[in-house]
Amino acid sequence: MTVLTVEVPNTATHYPLKIEKGLMAHVAEEIKNVYTNKKIVMITDTNVHQLYGAKLEQQLTDSGFEVKLLVLEAGEQTKSITSLMGIYSELTAFNLTRSDLLIALGGGVIGDLVGYAAATYLRGIAFVQIPTTLLAQVDSSVGGKVAIDLPEGKNLVGAFYHPILVLIDPNVLQTLTDSAFNDGMAEVIKYASIQNINFFHQLASYQSREAVMAEIEQVIEFCCSMKRDLVQADEKDTSERMLLNYGHTVGHAIEAFYHYKGYTHGQAISIGMIAINRLTEAAGISRKGSTAVVKALLEQYHLPTELADPADYADILPLIKLDKKNIHNTLNVVVLNEVGAAKLLKTDSDFFGPLLKGHDIK
Fold first, then answer.
1. What DSSP designation does 244 have?
2. Where does NAD(+) bind (predicted)?
3. pTM
4. How far is the C-alpha of 52 from the C-alpha of 25, rounded, in Å?
5. What string of H, E and C letters represents the secondary structure of 35-59?
6. pLDDT score of 359 more than 50
7. How is domain 2-175 classified at the CATH fold level?
8. Residue 145 assigned ligand-binding role
9. From CA 290, how far away is CA 284, in angstroms rounded?
């Protein structure tokens, strides 16, 4: 088993992140190592429940826990204030106290939503992340960012609130569709693009999903280690941690414009990475040819690299002003010097103007 430890300086935050194939069979044992009370509310979605919800509920019950299972509709639309209020009502009905536990069993939507419920209910209760998608395993379950969406934008209401434990079983990825698996690969490619050219070449060397899965523990560990290091250096996302937002400035705006239905998160940030890199390459900021290199790898994993209708940028770009990296009317945009090396560029939303003219898709 690979065990990474996330330690946030100047706080009491300290928790293990465990990566092991077959770990789902030992969840109750792992929970007992960090939690001594009995009550647990486990929250999952309709897709994950069919595969693991009832089995994990039984495992926890057999180990002596008193478990309430909540099953929410799958999809980004669930990450809403309406769902959050429903969770609060269920926690109250179950008489959950600050000494009890929440478990988030699912992908990024469930992890973000349950994490925010944990951060805010009774001013904070413990929770455990059990991510079941590649995207959640390499990214959203690590680092303590929890949030819900508003109609105006993604993750606009949130907090920094860390779990007490993260359990990652790569075997659960075998149940993902190819589309969902590739969605997670967009985040994996992001990591390689911003910080490690050797990892980028490694991803390019895989010729199939099976080849990735053969080394999936190493891939997940690499991504989680990189995120851990950035979180430990910059928990509140004001400097180095912002590098993890490569492609997200445009990507989040795309998701919001299409009401979280037109493009998945991975697809949106894939388009966002190429959009920003075409702009920066044209401006002489990014190395010539870097866009084509990143684009080729994204397309190798069957990810879109441009909007089906670029005319939609006219309505998408105004949403960038709501980006959380827009501080004092200065937008902190992540750009590549070259593939494998990123930096922050301070600019404003006008920087994206060429997208309206189609300059980025020539």
1. G
2. 108-112, 132-133, 145, 154
3. 0.92
4. 10
5. CCCCEEEEEEEHHHHHHHHHHHHHH
6. no
7. Rossmann fold (3.40.50)
8. yes
9. 11
Q: What percent of the chain has pLDDT over 90?
A: 80
Q: Is 143 annotated as a binding residue?
A: no
Query: Is 111 annotated in some ligand binding site?
Result: yes
Residue 280 DSSP symbol: H
Look at strands 153-160 and 145-150 and give their pairing.
antiparallel
Annotated binding residue at 108? yes
Say which amino acid occupies 165.
Answer: L
The correct answer on CATH 1.20.1090.10 for the domain covering 180-361 is yes
248 is in an annotated binding site: yes
Give the Cα separation of 170 and 168 in Å (integer): 6
* pLDDT over 80 (residue 180): yes
Task: Tell me the DSSP string of 111-152.
Answer: HHHHHHHHHHGGG--EEEEEE-SHHIIIIITSSSEEEEEETT
3-state secondary structure of 184: helix
Q: Tell whether residue 217 is among the known ligand binding residues.
A: no
Assigned token pair, 293: 């290199």
Is 265 annotated as contributing to ligand binding? yes
pLDDT in tens, 97-149: 999 999 999 999 999 999 999 999 999 999 999 999 999 999 999 889 999 99
21 is an annotated ligand-binding site residue: no
CA–CA gap between residue 143 and residue 243 (Å, rounded): 14
Query: Is 109 annotated as belonging to a binding site?
Result: yes
Cβ–Cβ contacts within 10 Å for residue 356, how many?
A: 14
DSSP 247: T
How many beta carbons lie within 10 A of that of residue 314, not counting itself?
A: 10
Q: Do the annotations mark residue 8 as ligand-binding? A: no
| Alpha carbons 156 and 89: distance in angstroms, whole number | 22
**Domain extent listing, the chain:** 2-175, 180-361
Instruction: Please name the residue that has the structure tokens 């430990």.
Output: 232
